[in-house]
Amino acid sequence: MVVIGAFLNALSMNFFLIPANVYASGFQGVAQLLSNIFTSFTPISISVGFLLVLLNIPVAILGWMKVGKSFTIFSFLSVVITTIFLELIPVKALSEDIILNAVFGGVIGATGVGLTLKWGASTGGLDIVAMILSRMKDRPIGNYFLIMNGVIIALAGLIFGWEKALYTLVALYVSTRVVDAIHTRHAKLTAMIITDKSEEVKTAIHAKLVRGITVVPAKGAFSGKEREMLIIVITRYELYDLERILKEVDPNAFTNIVETAGIFGFFRKE
């Protein structure tokens, strides 16, 4: 998934964003902007890929300390693979329409970012910073992308004209929405499980998920049979694990899954 995400990111940049001078999100956009600055105002030409690796070194150290070793290793690996793809894939415009380039570049790049985040890594740079802030505040990660990428838009506008900055804003907005659609860890669900095997189900859930369970006495209106209802709040990512547990322990359990608008009180975010 890291390789696929890196390939999609490089594809979005070399086929859509770079030819149209529309800037990508995160450190890819920063590297793109710096590369253009070097090319336009100095005799030095530095590739986007090299700048991308250079910018990610301090952020990788932050991710190692705050997020986790595995996450950081895969994230830095994603940066290296993206750099290789950026060098291998030719820069070629598929369309002269700048809006099409901004939208499709944003969608394809964000798909790469979202898939990489969903599978436990990132594409490096601002992804790691946004991931840390998202875990601290338990908010959609796309919001942090949009806020932090405002700096890229402002610099692009000041240096290369506000028209390019506005097209960059289109690409970044599209990216934000796509990333939030794919990376849904912030979304919460409430599962209400009515089962005859409450003890077995509780034991199985606690073995797999670090979540609290509330037990409520329940009685069938038609059968009059006494049961227990287990109430548990999970992230959308944990729904697959819960479904598998119920199929193994009690396939006859009746489970109602509802969207949770908000949570007050302690909820483990890791």
Question: Which properties best describe this structure?
Answer:
270 residues, alpha+beta, four-stranded antiparallel β-sheet, elongated
User: Low-confidence runs (pLDDT<50, min 5 residues)?
Assistant: none
What is the tally of helical segments? 11
Instruction: State the helicity in percent bands.
Output: 55-70%
Describe the oligomeric state of these chains in a short phrase.
Answer: single chain
Topology pattern, helix = H, strand = E: HHHHHHHHHEHEEHE
> Average pLDDT, to the nearest integer?
81
What is the number of beta strands?
4
Tell me the major beta sheet. 4 strands, antiparallel
The helix-and-strand class reads alpha+beta
Note the overall shape. Answer: elongated
Major beta sheet, strand line-up: 2-3-1-4
What distance lies between the first and last C-alpha atoms, to the nearest angstrom? 21 Å
Radius of gyration: 23 Å
In percent, how much strand structure appears in the residues? 5-15%
